[in-house]
Sequence to fold (163 residues):
Amino acid sequence: MNLIDIGNAVRTRRSELGLSQVKLAHLSGLSRQTLVGLENGTLSDLGVNRVGQIAAVLGLDSPKLDTQARRKKRGLWMAAKTASVSYASELRPEALEEALVSGEVPAPFAPHVTYLLDEAPVPVVVMAVEEAASHAQLPPRKIWRNVAKLARSLSVHRRVLWA
Fold:
């Protein structure tokens, strides 16, 4: 697989997830220029670590970059378990899905969602957004707007990441 193939896979997956180039660059810790060059096939070199950063956020597996393994994972369940790790009450995947779809979180679960957005690995949040969008038959872009809204309303430390 060469950089052109990787760039095509990244562009396709980014679009499926409703992420802008700016947002994906921010989530993966790369510059937008690097991402543009990768997607356009004009980038001459990109280290394996940088490819890995983008692939991890998008849920692309190697050696063939696709999402087959990721689709078998339960993103909402993983995110809800991650969010509940420090709390006696458990955030159910269905409640997390409702919060992501509506942009509103029930008061008892505000700490859980705050923890999720502040501490969870970015790929876990991406999986939850993708699954919630699929279940609600909404474009992922709408769910991302709700994530940004939740991050603002809960004053999470990483709110700039989700903006």
